[in-house]
Amino acid sequence: MNREILVPKGTVAYIQDGNFVHYICQDNGSPELRGITLSSEGRTTANATLGFALPGTPGSYILFEEMRAFYCVSQNNILQEFLLDEDLTWYEGGLQDQGIKLAPNSGVTATRTSSGSIFVFFQNEGGNLQYVYGDEPDEWQIGDELEEAKLGSGASMYAVTLKPLPHLFYAHPDGYIHDLAMVSDGEWDDSRIELTDVGSVQSKIFVVPTKLGYGLEFENSKREVYAVHNKERALIGKYVGGVYKHEDVETFIWQLRAAVDDSDDE
Questions:
Q1: pTM of the shown model
Q2: pLDDT tens digits, 91-148
Q3: Are 173 and 91 in the same domain?
Q4: DSSP string, 83-108
Q5: Omega of the bond prior to 58 within 30 degrees of 0, cis?
Q6: How far is residue 54's CA from residue 263's CA, in Å, rounded to a whole number?
Q7: Residue 7: is it exposed, middle or buried by C-beta count within 10 angstroms (0-12/13-18/19+)?
Q8: What are phi and psi of 61, to 5 degrees?
Q9: Chain centre to alpha carbon of residue 21
């Protein structure tokens, strides 16, 4: 059984919230950021404009309590954030006041830990991996450069919390995806993830916490999409035009979903 999934045109980032999926979109060549919400019944709601960012910006969307936050690159190549309050009104946060300039083609990825701290990762102006963190929006501290990680220009990366600490999954020059994990305050450990070498550059890394640790999804330069979970790797689909086509791997997908559901109960 093949299934086709359509996503809004120009999607920069998205997040799932119950029966809704919230997207941040940007038209080709335009600095304007727009919010779109899709329900599980297929209904579409267009939200207000967030603000403006670098055309083609990377971005990371996180949900916490009654708010949402979106992290991206400003038109001046500075790390910035937009926050959505309980009245569904977007406003600029204070992260851009730090004046953090990013490397060309830097990714931006964020996660919120179980203790409430937000970590935002990026490649700084010198091309080195770095992060900012804070316990509340607008209360930011700049972390050290993470010398443990070796990233090429514009390398794909994805931040996630695997209880209780943040992890950064990224495409390493050795051809594997690596896991950079915080092991204590200010200390990080880097490890290679087996089964992630598929003979081409990995992109669009995505990670889901599960009972067994995590499920990892990524795309290669052929636009094939792979999943790695519980020491297994499967080709789960590919992009044809703008449509994501799933292959017949329902058993693998349901095993992963069950593992995710189990982890939520603990």
A1: 0.85
A2: 999 999 999 999 999 999 999 998 889 999 999 999 999 999 998 767 899 999 998 8
A3: yes
A4: EE-TTS-EEE-SGGGG--BB-TT--E
A5: no
A6: 37
A7: middle
A8: -120, 125
A9: 14
Do 149 and 20 lie in one domain? The reply is yes
Closest C-alpha among 204, 171, 165 to residue 59: 204
Which pair of tokens denotes residue 69? 């936050």
Separation of alpha carbons 246 and 198, rounded Å: 18
- For 159-203, what is each residue's pLDDT tens digit? 999 988 999 999 999 989 999 999 987 789 999 999 998 877 788
User: Which of 68-72, 123-127, 192-196, 212-216 is the least confident region?
Assistant: 212-216
Tell me the residue ranges of DSSP E strands in 41-92: 44-52, 59-64, 67-73, 79-84, 90-92
Going by pLDDT thresholds of 50, 70 and 90, the confidence category of residue 4 is very low
CATH of the domain at 136: 2.120.10.70
> 79-84 and 11-17: which strand pairing?
unpaired
For residues 134 and 53, what is the distance between their CA atoms, to the nearest angstrom? 22
SS (HEC) of 180-194: EEEEECCEEEEEECC
Structural domain boundaries, residue 85: 4-193
> Do 180 and 252 sit in the same domain of this protein?
no
Same domain, 162 and 49: yes
Tell me the sheet residues that pair with 98: none
